[in-house]
Design brief:
Radius of gyration: 22 Å
Number of domains: 1
Distance between the termini: 46 Å
Structural class: mainly alpha
Largest sheet: 2 strands, antiparallel
Helix content: 55-70%
Shape: globular
Number of helices: 19
Order of helices and strands: HHEEHHHHHHHHHHHHHHHHH
Number of strands: 2
Strand order of the largest sheet: 1-2
């Protein structure tokens, strides 16, 4: 048996895989884009797991939020409400991808079908499963209110994908739109709603206009308009200052997510405060680009994790609330458990909820194993390279994000 030379260690399987993924990544790939997308997705997932509670009330379940009982936890929403960063990256990648497609002679129809196709299969899996689950629960006599609560929570991530798909389809019209225009729309909608007593339904105009702001900032990034650090600092400082003024003097909620029981939600639909907060987040993301690029090149294990999150971003996003509900439902067999079924009204609940996070991760891992094929395609037979193996081993392979783009 050949002996190992002294002082030389066999690399761990994790490091071997990380090196393969690193070698499979094109040299000109902007790893900061993937890192920002992964941070945005994981921020949303952790945020939902921390601020969404399903309280057992007899034989039924109802939603509650620790932010309602402990408003001082509002800064938690500032950390984990990261959707603006996702739209920033989405606008940047879509604009870049459209220009590349045009250079290769592809039509708009071919381009948009390719970009939206990867959204439909994972969504169909979630909707199909929950349709079966809801019917099964109702047939077996489950409380209708509980079924409504569970289904509403399970499909709530879909609103984001509908907006994202619409903005993606409109990319040719948005590539040169100044972000100040949709920002002005949001400003005037809120002025009519809150200042002039206009109808509340008018706020839904902001569902498109509000997320159009970071999306068009992403397009400006692609054009090279936001390359200097001054642009990042301007967005960060201006967005943060505007948000502080709106919360302190204009009556906007401090929480950047919806809180059950509150009269106004910053997110449903987006308000001016949510949009200015998103602008600040986009500025911070732009400032972090260089540091993320360096870290992703030096810390290969981190880069491998980011690459794999990007490969499964849709699956993680669509199934993370199902993982929470599956854990909650299973836990009911043992009776009401603190941090899982109890009212979220104290520091003890926060401690218990943090302890439940690994269980949520485990449940999400089960969902990922069962449903990742809808995002990544069917697993190939033994002897043929799967998509992930191809990513690790083939020279021209690239990591794809939720939009399916190579960038």
């Amino acid at each position: 048996m050949r002996e190992q030379a002294p002082g030389i260690r066999n690399p761990s399987p994790l490091r071997t895989a990380a090196h393969r993924i690193d070698r499979a990544t094109p040299a000109d790939r902007d790893r900061a884009v993937d890192a920002l997308r992964a941070l945005a997705i994981l921020g949303v997932v952790l945020g939902h797991w921390l601020v969404t509670a399903l309280v057992a009330d007899g034989s039924s379940l109802r939603t509650a939020s620790p932010l309602h009982f402990m408003p001082w936890l509002a800064p938690v929403s500032w950390v984990f409400q990261t959707l603006a960063v996702f739209f920033l990256v989405g606008g940047h990648v879509a604009t870049k991808s459209l220009a590349s497609a045009r250079a290769r002679g592809r039509t708009y129809g071919q381009w948009v079908r390719g970009r939206l196709a990867r959204l439909t299969k994972p969504v169909a899996a979630v909707v199909g499963l929950w349709a079966v689950v809801a019917c099964g629960l109702l047939v077996n006599g489950a409380d209708a209110g509980t079924v409504h609560t569970l289904v509403k929570l399970a499909v709530s991530p879909l609103w984001f994908l509908l907006v994202f798909a619409a903005l993606t389809a409109a990319t040719p019209l948005l590539t040169r739109l100044n972000p100040l225009w949709p920002l002005a729309v949001v400003l005037h909608v809120d002025l009519v709603r809150f200042g002039l007593g206009g109808p509340s339904w008018l706020g839904w105009v902001n569902l498109a206009a509000g997320w159009m702001v970071p999306y068009t900032l992403g397009a400006a990034w692609t054009r090279g308009d936001l390359e200097g650090r001054r642009a990042g600092w301007t967005l960060l400082a201006g967005g943060a200052a505007a948000t502080a003024v709106l919360v302190a003097f204009a009556g906007y909620p401090a929480s950047m997510v919806g809180v059950p029981g509150n009269a106004v939600s910053n997110l449903n639909p987006p308000t001016l405060a949510a949009v200015t907060f998103g602008i600040a987040q986009c500025g911070l993301a732009l400032l972090l680009r260089e540091r993320l690029r360096r870290v992703m090149r030096r810390r290969l294990v981190l880069w491998a994790a980011v690459a794999l999150v990007n490969l499964s971003a849709m699956t993680i996003y669509l199934w993370h609330l199902t993982a929470l509900m599956a854990t909650t439902a299973t836990g009911l067999l043992a009776g009401p458990l603190p941090g899982l079924h109890t009212v979220p009204e104290g520091v003890a609940w926060v401690a218990y909820r943090l302890a439940w996070l690994p269980v949520f991760v485990l449940a999400l891992s089960v969902c990922w194993t069962a449903f990742r094929g809808y995002e990544q395609g069917p697993r190939r037979r033994k002897g043929r390279r799967s998509r992930v193996v191809a990513l690790r081993r083939s020279g021209p392979a690239t990591v794809r994000g939720t939009d399916g783009a190579r960038h």
